[in-house]
Amino acid sequence: MYIEGKKNNIDYQTLTNHHECRFGHWYDEYGLPRYSKIKSFNNIEPLHIKIHQSGKEIVKLCDNGKLTLAREKSTELLQLKDQILKNLAILQGQVIACTD
Q1: Per residue in 35-92, pLDDT tens?
Q2: Dmax over Cα atoms in the chain, in whole Å?
Q3: What are the boundaries of each domain within the chain?
Q4: Measured between alpha carbons, how far is 66 from 87 in angstroms, rounded to an integer?
Q5: pLDDT(31) > 60
Q6: Contact by Cβ (8 Å): 3, 72
Q7: Which of 44, 55, 63, 64 lies 20 to 30 Å (CA to CA) from residue 72?
Q8: DSSP secondary structure string, the chain?
Q9: C-alpha distances in Å from residue 6, one per residue of 3, 55, 63, 93
Q10: What is the predicted pLDDT for the residue at 1?
Q11: Tens digits of per-residue pLDDT, 9-26?
């Protein structure tokens, strides 16, 4: 984890641009054409954007030696992740219901 000094090889674009990460590619290229009319799908993008903003802030705090603040901010990041997973589960249920 970045906060603990374990820096990975994520480039700046992937970190800061929600269209450039793997989930962003799925959302834009696969999800939008298939699920854009479903509310739970559309609830995901604002959360995804917030995740990237939060991640960027955490990296900046770490780089400036503010690890306590970075750890505090990481709880927000985890809450956003949980919200996205909740919406994905709802979406999955709605898609399955439509195919039955």
Answers
A1: 999 988 999 999 999 999 998 898 889 889 999 999 999 999 999 999 999 999 999 9
A2: 53
A3: 8-99
A4: 32
A5: yes
A6: no
A7: 44
A8: -GGGT------HHHHH-TTTSHHHHHIIIIIHHHHTTSHHHHTHHHHHHHHHHHHHHHHHHHHTT-HHHHHHHHHHHHHHHHHHHHHHHHHHHHHHHHH-
A9: 7, 15, 12, 36
A10: 52
A11: 667 777 778 999 999 999
Between the CA of residue 44 and those of 11, 20, 82, 88, what are the distances in Å? Answer: 23, 16, 11, 8
Q: Whole-angstrom Cα distance, residue 63 to residue 50?
A: 20
Residue 52 pLDDT: 93
The CA distance from 98 to 78, in Å, is 30
Answer yes or no: is pLDDT of 2 > 60.
Answer: no
What is d(CA 83, CA 58) in angstroms, rounded to the nearest whole number? Answer: 19
Q: Give the pLDDT confidence score for residue 34 in this predicted structure.
A: 94
Query: Alpha-carbon Rg of the chain, whole angstroms?
Result: 15
